[in-house]
Specification:
The protein is α+β, with helices and mostly antiparallel strands. It is 29% helix and 47% strand. The longest helix is centred in the first third of the chain and has 38 residues. It is elongated.
């Protein structure tokens, strides 16, 4: 008696599946292991995390620019590991932080701004470097136009939660 073609096909597929199932399981296990290993390696250490927490939040300070203008500038820092996100004001206008980095108690980033002259607009960059000590950040600003660098100090802004105690 001859076997039904459907039964023969079912047996053939079952034989193929028997050796593929352990292989699929092994590949899934390896992918999960690799993901966990990669994530563990990219998490900041607890000391880096606590240092990054020092920068988190709103900061402000008086900046006297080389041409004599004085502005109260505001900064908002949101670190994620060794990367820094947020805003930095220049001449009272907020600008997005780009290429922000944290290294221990130091930070660096740049912000773009447009300068208009007549009908022409030119894009420039302000480069910032800072170092946190206690509840202050000593900052240095250098623009891409060649003006002399400006040093200033940022203080942690009053938080509505803690009543501004800093």
């Amino acid at each position: 008696m001859r076997e039904d073609p459907r039964t023969a096909l079912r047996k053939k597929l079952l034989r193929r599946l028997i050796w593929k199932a352990p292989l699929i399981f092994l590949l899934v296990f390896f992918a999960v292991w690799w993901q966990m290993r990669t994530e563990r390696g990219t998490q900041p250490s607890s000391s880096a995390g606590s240092k990054a927490a020092l920068f988190t939040g709103s900061w402000n300070g008086e900046v006297i620019y080389p041409w004599g203008a004085k502005y109260s500038e505001e900064f908002f820092f949101q670190p994620e590991g060794d990367k820094l996100f947020g805003t930095a004001s220049f001449l009272g206008m907020k600008r997005g932080i780009e290429d922000g980095k944290i290294d221990g108690d130091q930070l660096s980033f740049f912000a773009r701004f447009d300068e208009g002259s007549g009908e022409q607009t030119v894009q420039h960059k302000n480069y910032y470097w800072g170092q946190v000590t206690d509840s202050r950040i000593s900052m240095r600003l250098q623009d891409s136009r060649g003006n002399p660098p400006v040093d200033f100090v940022l203080k942690k802004a009053a938080s509505p939660i803690d009543g501004g105690a800093q």
